[in-house]
Specification:
The chain has 18 helices and 24 strands. The protein is α+β, with helices and mostly antiparallel strands. Strands 1, 2, 7, 8, 9, 10, 16 and 17 form an 8-stranded mixed β-sheet that branches. Strand 21, helix 16 and strand 22 form a beta-alpha-beta unit. Helix 9 packs antiparallel against helix 10 and helix 16 crosses helix 18. The longest helix has 22 residues. The relative contact order is 0.12.
Length: 580
């Protein structure tokens, strides 16, 4: 066995985390290679909800429009319906995924992007095709076996499944993006909190024209409260739209202690028929697979030169639609840091900030996703549907809500309240956008943490305080209208200031680092026609924000400073690890 492949960064896995890491690295000019044990990209829908923060990442990486072209648009995602079956009784709906009018307005104020639904088998080609076009080397049918690392790099042993032989790849850094059963994370000894296998679920992918039951209430998700729906799984039966209104995926639970049922075509079709509630519609089963609901997160995301991202370090149910979003954002956080370390701009200590910034996010989303499962139970409780009973009793309980009695009125109110509370799963705008980083790559400005004026899971609260994502505001430049987020990124640091901030611009030019400068104000390259930026920037015209390549504010100063070059230089030394 010999080393016949050399690269800067080796990525194990071609899912959302691995593919986006490759795309970002290639966009930044970093040589990288992806190996995947599979002979193709994802062939089932799996992850799908794509939130605004992820769309901002895709926008910066130049593939936003390609993703939107393949996605189900936001306006077709949002009538999340609770019913006894698609053909049966409807119990209520939640306006979801930004389609509630006030939430929709909040989405438009928060970002230049719109969320969408792009199933994983459509997302992966967007990311991988762009990555390969920009330089990524991709090897299918290549199994990761082990790694050894030393002071200068990582030697990874892989096996070619086509030839049947093993060889080694020498890389300066290794990224394990190999999913919820990550062998890279296991071999790296990353400490995990939580537990695996807390409940059992089955995915059934099928084709059926369900237009008559869905087109009038377009949605990504239809939740079915039927006998057996509370066993294992994610709290209820789920019919998920893959492509309107003919491609579908059902999630159904099983008792994890008894093991998964035999996933025959007959079994799959029986579940599909139960949840559709119509035995006449033609159904074609495409695939069935069993999986477990997990509640596990890594406490550390790296060991030496080995880093892990995505499901390798946070394993949770699909509730809230956070999985692929968090995975892509992990890789986006890591890629620019690797780029600056590899080209000698930053000290390797910068890479320690990856765990410091992303592990708290991973812990939060694992907790949030599992909490959402528990928030389904009150819907059943309102119908007295959690206690063991016959199907006939459940149907009688559901029918009782229609009666003109005080008890039925209270039941209707409980049901409405229980369904409305699912807003924490379907409109958690703050979970998507309120991530705040605390690490050595953030320079505190001494201001107190303002906290959140409203529920931080439900509502986004923009802030320019170091550690927060740069707030979005619409600017103009000549005849162009663009977001503040469009002025940053591209793998570079960006300095934003205004009239009177010339000292900051000179300070940026004096650094031994490529820093883009953005001056906002009347008669400047960028103007603030609505006055939104003046309010959201939270600094005076002569103040400054230094924004990292990932769009996060790293340094802030409220006004002009006679020692601007010294202040900016010291901030950059801290951020890049040169002062450590």
């Amino acid at each position: 066995m010999h080393t016949d492949v050399v690269t800067d960064v080796l990525i194990v896995g071609s899912g959302p985390a691995g593919a986006s890491a490759a795309l970002a690295l290639s966009t930044y000019g970093v040589p990288n290679m992806v190996v995947t044990r599979y002979a193709s990209l994802a062939d089932t829908p799996r992850a799908h909800i794509t939130n605004q923060r992820t769309m901002e990442v895709l926008r910066d990486l130049g593939v936003e429009q390609e993703a939107l072209a393949r996605a189900t648009p936001q306006h077709l995602m949002g009538n999340t319906t609770f019913c006894t079956s698609l053909a049966g009784e409807e119990l209520g709906r939640v306006r979801s995924w930004g389609n509630e009018p006030l939430v929709q307005a909040a989405h438009e104020l928060a970002s230049p992007t719109v969320m969408c639904d792009i199933p994983q088998h459509l997302m992966e080609p967007v990311l991988v095709d762009a990555a390969v076009a920009r330089g990524t080397v991709l090897r299918y049918s290549t199994v990761y076996r082990s790694f050894t690392q030393d002071a200068d790099g990582v030697t990874v042993t892989v096996e070619d499944r086509v030839r049947g032989d093993a060889y080694t790849i020498r890389a300066k850094y290794l990224i394990g993006a190999d999913g919820g059963r990550s062998k890279v994370a296991e071999d790296a000894g990353l400490p995990m909190g939580g537990q695996m296998g807390v409940a059992g679920s089955i995915n059934i992918v099928f084709d059926a024209d369900l237009s008559r039951y869905t087109a009038h209430r377009p949605s990504t998700l239809y939740w079915v409260l039927a006998p057996g729906a509370t066993v294992g799984g994610i709290g209820a039966g789920l019919v998920r739209c893959v492509r309107p209104w003919t491609e579908w995926l059902i999630v159904w639970g099983y008792d994890v202690t008894a093991g998964a049922p035999d996933l025959t075509t007959e079994y799959a079709e029986s579940v599909v028929r139960q949840l559709i509630g119509d035995d006449e519609i033609p159904v074609t089963i495409r695939s069935s697979s069993a999986w477990t609901v997990n509640e596990m997160h890594a406490e550390t995301y790296s060991n030496g030169r080995v880093f892990c991202a995505g499901d390798a370090v946070h394993r949770h149910p699909p509730s809230n639609g956070l999985g692929s979003n968090t995975s892509i954002q992990d890789s986006y956080n890591l890629a620019w840091k690797l780029k600056l370390v590899l080209d000698g701009t930053a000290d390797p200590g910068l890479l320690d900030t990856y765990t410091a910034e992303r592990a708290p996010v991973g812990r939060q989303i694992v907790t949030r996703a599992n909490k959402s499962i528990g928030e389904t139970a009150p819907i059943f409780e309102a119908l007295d549907g959690l206690t063991p009973q016959t199907p006939e009793q459940l149907w009688a309980n559901i029918a009782a809500r229609k009666e003109s009695t005080e008890a039925a009125g209270k039941q209707r109110a409980r049901l409405r309240d229980a369904i409305a509370h699912k807003v924490y799963e379907f409109n958690a705008h703050g979970v998507d956008l309120n991530q705040r980083y605390t690490s050595d790559a953030i320079v505190p400005d001494g201001t107190p943490d303002p906290g959140f004026a409203r529920d931080p899971e439900l509502h986004h609260q923009p802030s320019s305080r170091p550690g927060a994502k740069l707030p979005h505001a619409w600017l103009t430049s000549g005849t162009r209208t663009l977001s503040t987020l469009d002025t940053v990124g591209g793998g570079r640091f960006t300095l934003l200031t205004g009239i009177g901030g010339e000292g900051w611009v000179r300070a940026a030019a004096a650094q031994d680092l490529d820093i883009a400068t953005v001056v906002v104000g009347p008669g400047q390259e960028y103007e603030d026609p609505y006055g939104d930026w003046a309010r959201l920037s939270e600094v005076s015209d002569s103040g400054v924000l230094l924004v990292r390549p990932d769009g996060y504010v790293a340094f802030r100063h409220p006004a002009a400073a006679a020692n601007a070059e010294e202040l900016l230089g010291e901030a950059l030394r801290r951020i890049l690890g040169r002062a450590r």
